[in-house]
Structure formats: C-alpha cells, structure tokens
TrEMBL record:
<feature type="repeat" description="Lumazine-binding">
    <location>
        <begin position="97"/>
        <end position="193"/>
    </location>
</feature>
<comment type="pathway">
    <text>Cofactor biosynthesis; riboflavin biosynthesis; riboflavin from 2-hydroxy-3-oxobutyl phosphate and 5-amino-6-(D-ribitylamino)uracil: step 2/2.</text>
</comment>
<protein>
    <recommendedName>
        <fullName>Riboflavin synthase</fullName>
        <ecNumber>2.5.1.9</ecNumber>
    </recommendedName>
</protein>
<dbReference type="Pfam" id="PF00677">
    <property type="entry name" value="Lum_binding"/>
</dbReference>
<dbReference type="InterPro" id="IPR017938">
    <property type="entry name" value="Riboflavin_synthase-like_b-brl"/>
</dbReference>
<keyword id="KW-0677">Repeat</keyword>
<feature type="repeat" description="Lumazine-binding">
    <location>
        <begin position="1"/>
        <end position="96"/>
    </location>
</feature>
<keyword id="KW-0686">Riboflavin biosynthesis</keyword>
<feature type="domain" description="Lumazine-binding">
    <location>
        <begin position="97"/>
        <end position="193"/>
    </location>
</feature>
<dbReference type="InterPro" id="IPR023366">
    <property type="entry name" value="ATP_synth_asu-like_sf"/>
</dbReference>
<dbReference type="InterPro" id="IPR026017">
    <property type="entry name" value="Lumazine-bd_dom"/>
</dbReference>
<keyword id="KW-0808">Transferase</keyword>
<dbReference type="InterPro" id="IPR001783">
    <property type="entry name" value="Lumazine-bd"/>
</dbReference>
<feature type="domain" description="Lumazine-binding">
    <location>
        <begin position="1"/>
        <end position="96"/>
    </location>
</feature>
<comment type="function">
    <text>Catalyzes the dismutation of two molecules of 6,7-dimethyl-8-ribityllumazine, resulting in the formation of riboflavin and 5-amino-6-(D-ribitylamino)uracil.</text>
</comment>
Length: 200
C-alpha cells in the first residue's frame, strides 16, 4: 500500500523492449536505499517490482497489460517519474490509501497559474467519473490530491509550490498523459450496494 506522497523525482535511464513487455531502469537514490529484489516501488502511481538493484538505480519489468492501461508506455530515457516506496506499518498516512493499481489514464487539459498555486484540469474517462467527487481524493501519477471541481469528463486539482517543484505535475503540459487511480473505498461501496440490491 502507498499513500500518494511522492518521495522523490526519479529518472528513466534505460528502456528495453522485450516484445510483450518492457524492462525499465530507473534512478532514485532515496527509494533504492535498502532496496532488495522483490520489493515494490510505485512509478508514476504504478506498483512495480524491483528485479535488480545496483547503486542508486533499479530495474523493473512491465507487462503489456500495464503498458496499455497506464502511461508508462510513453516513458523514454530521460523521462522524469514520481517514485514512492510502500508505507510502513505504523507510519503516518499522509495522503490516502493508494494501491498502485492504475484505473485509467487522463490527459492534462489546461494549466492556470496564480501567484502561489496552480489549477490543473485533467480529462476523466467516463467509466471513472462516478468515483470522483468534489473534495474527494484522487491519485494522479502517484500523487495524492484533493479534487477541487468534479465535472462529467474532467476534474481539477490545485497544486502548491512544493508539488510543482518535487513531482512530475510541475513538468506536465496540456496534451500529456497521466495515470489515474480513484479512491478504492468508493469502488468497494459501489460493489457492496450492488450486491445488497441483488439479494433483496
């Protein structure tokens, strides 16, 4: 489990096409400290497994399903990525419950800068819109954010200078894809209510 609090802005150092999958090598001095084979690290909100670890770099295999359902397929050498290790038991939950299972992708539609923050508008797939509510939580590229406005096919988030400086959202421009993970609690509630109706 993750919290959506990005630990560092890493970098893709190599991409190897394996036919039906890809192997990424990524640099991240913070998240690789003490990393071992089999550990999990979230990369732009996608939970990946450490295959190899050397120095401040690690490699991870990404299967075709993940490449198709997330924006990881668009990464190239030099791409910056948000990195986070799983939360430790007993640690503070600074963001919200994030599984690292991407529900879909959106596109940055618009950026509105102001003096001390920036409003970013992101497209929202139709099948995810029912899970997104004003002042609710959403994960964008692995970042736990609060929804400012929830439209039928978009949402907006307000970004503070720290988020802009330390995550990929400070770099994303209109037209760029982002990974989205909705609040898992909303999905469980929907399923439970549907099952409740079916038993009556």
């Amino acid at each position: 489990m993750f919290t959506g609090i990005v630990e560092e802005l890493g970098e893709v150092t190599a991409v190897e096409n394996l036919g039906d999958s890809s192997r990424f090598r990524l640099r991240g001095p913070v998240v690789t400290e003490g990393a071992r084979h089999g550990d999990s690290i979230a990369v732009n909100g996608v939970c990946l497994t450490v295959v190899e670890h050397e120095g401040d770099e690690f490699t991870a295999d990404v299967m075709a399903e993940t490449l198709e359902r997330s924006s990881l397929g668009a990464l190239t050498v030099g791409s910056r990525v948000n990195l986070e290790r799983p939360t430790a038991v007993g640690a503070r939950l600074g963001g919200h419950i994030v599984q690292g299972h991407v529900d879909g992708t959106g596109t940055v539609l618009e950026r509105k800068p102001s003096e001390n923050w920036e409003i970013v508008k992101v497209s929202l797939p139709e099948d995810l819109s029912r899970y997104v509510v004003e002042k609710g939580s959403i994960t964008v590229d692995g970042i736990s954010l609060t929804v400012v406005e929830a439209g039928p096919d978009y949402f907006t988030v307000s970004l503070i200078p720290t988020t802009l400086a330390l995550t990929t959202l400070g770099l994303k421009q209109p037209g760029d894809p982002v990974n989205l993970e909705v609040d898992v609690v909303a999905k469980y509630v929907e399923r439970l209510l549907a099952n409740q109706g079916a038993t009556r």
